[in-house]
Structure formats: C-alpha cells, structure tokens
Amino acid sequence: MFSLKKKLLTLTRGFTLIELLVVIAIIGILVAISSVSYQRAVKLSRDNKRKTDLEQLRQALETYRSENGKYPLLDTVNVNANTHGNFAIALVNGEFISTIPQDPKYNNYYYRYVKVGSNTTYSLCATLEVNPGQTLSKCSGSICGTNSLACNYEVANP
C-alpha cells in the first residue's frame, strides 16, 4: 500500500519549469528551421515556374521565326500583368502561344525580351529569387523588376 501511494505522488508531481523551458526551446528551434526550409522551397518553386515560362516563350519565338523568317519586332520589352509589348501580342495573335505567362510574383518581377542585331538573336531574361550564379551574355545590366531588380537568369535563342 505504501509503495502504491509513493508511485501516485511521483506521477502527480508534474514537470519542472526548467524541463518545460527546454521543451519549448527545442520546439522553437525546430519551427525556425522548418520555416526557413519552407521559404526556400517556395522561392525555388517560383523560380522553376519562371524558367518554364521563359522556355515556353523561347519555343513560341522559335516557331514564330520558322514561319515568318524573323523574330517579332521589339518595342515594349517587359512582359508583366499590365503590358505585353508587340512581340508578345504577335505570339498570341499568331497562335504560337495561348497566353503570355505571368511571373508568379508579378508585382515585383517581370520578364524581359532583349533583341540583338537585326532580328537574328534574342535573350529572355528574368530575376530568380535564388540567384543561380549564371553569367549573362545579353541580359547583363538589364533590369527585370521594380526596385531596380537586376536580371540574373537568361534564355537565349539556340
């Protein structure tokens, strides 16, 4: 009987303040680490969407060139929710692409169409949130977003 009472007293004693603080600190550290990992995954997901969008535009431009003998004219070079430019309108009207892709964070970012020479070469540029460390040939120094976000990714014609 005495040992049963002793066990019940031990079980009802509870946790000390230090034990609770240690558990709370460990949970806090785990939440902080998972939050950083989640944010990086979200940024990488948007970057993959940007890369896919640029590849779709590149394929549409190549199809346009194969049918028209040249690339579309360059006037407005930024592709975002508000402006498409004549090159993008030519791609949609000619049914080379169904819709112009929009940057997943279009309030801050946009795609840029840079044409070099007389309709013979171009680059499509974007700003990735996780810098790819790519050396840009034609988009170097171009701005691909509000707040003077520099382009750090490009897709050029083959």
What is the strand and helix layout of this fold?
Elements: H1 2-11, H2 17-68, E1 78-79, H3 85-93, E2 111-116, E3 121-126, E4 153-156
Antiparallel strand pairs: 1-2, 2-3, 3-4
Explain what this protein looks like in three dimensions.
By secondary structure, this protein is an alpha+beta fold. The chain has one domain. The chain is built from 3 helices and 4 strands; from the N terminus they run ααβαβββ. The chain has a 4-stranded antiparallel beta sheet with strand order 1-2-3-4, with helices on one face.
Number of DSSP E strands: 4
Give the terminus-to-terminus CA distance.
87 Å
Radius of gyration over alpha carbons?
A: 27 Å
Mean pLDDT equals 78
Strand content: 5-15%
Query: Uncertain runs with pLDDT below 50, 5 residues or more?
Result: none
What are the secondary-structure elements, in order, as H or E? HHEHEEE
Shape: elongated
Largest sheet: 4 strands, antiparallel
Number of helices: 3
Structural class: alpha+beta
Q: What is the subunit organization of this protein?
A: single chain
Q: How many structural domains does the protein architecture include?
A: 1
Bin the helical content: 40-55%
Q: Trace the largest sheet across and list its strands.
A: 1-2-3-4
